[in-house]
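Entry 14. Ran structure prediction on the chain below.
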Amino acid sequence: MTARWVQLFALLLGAAIGFAARADTSVPYLFVLGVAQDAGYPQSGCYEPHCIPGWRDPRLRRGAVSLALIDPSAGEKFLFEATPDFPAQLYDLEREAPSDRFRLGGIFLTHAHIGHYAGLMFLGHEAMGAAGMPVYAMPRMTGYLRTNGPWSQLVEYENIALRPLQEGSSVKLGLVNVTPFRVPHRDEYSETVGFRIAGPARTAVFIPDIDKWSAWDTDLAALVRSVDYALIDATFFADGELPGRDMSKVRHPFVTESMAALQSLSAAQRSRVWFIHFNHTNPLLDKNSSQHRLVTSTGFNVAIEGTRLDL
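Output, structure tokens:
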């Protein structure tokens, strides 16, 4: 049997048993597990025309925003966000980086809105019964988890082990450094952060939730120029997307606003941008929409599950 046929047989065998075994390199990388806003797509209780395709065709459904960091050289994997879609996303991560080769080293949280931390419940004794799973979060977030049920039970039963983060202070994970930075957002229960994720060759920023760019003391275009990948909040595409609501009071930056703020970037720099965290109303969820074509024809990227970004 030639080497080519051996390789083909191995690929077919991997597909047959259901595990992709994609983590076949020593280079750490990010792997997109979810792209939707907290409630996923389609959203519960939504039976409008934009949601019905998702109910009728499971292939169109999208989980809440989540990333994995996979480091083959260290044999470890990490999650960014613990979403309500945690079980399915953990399975997708298992297919990409099987547990017999990659230890789940912890979970990083951005803030205390349901789509970003509610999946921690699946680590409890009613479900996985995890033992000391490291959960990395900012001080207010760790305090919230420690003092409010049912999350406090995870701490009491030692299903999770809280690892407090400090703004601007890096956590070293093998070949990768993860650094939280504060961003403006609704902070009812915790502060909100983005993460700078620096690998041996490339760097990413992950900002799934933020208020308008004008509310932040960082220039978005300069930030994009400083990294290789910028995964940024794209909750709503444009004004008027929510009928009957005054969207001037919606704090998220519209995709149209982000594109305007980044219009000075070169084509190569625009390719660093990955829009993510789509509300169920966002037409970017439909790859055949005119809005999707506009974004991609302008040189930006629309994140999908399975996107792989080498670090």
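The radius of gyration is 19 Å. Will compare against last week's run tomorrow.
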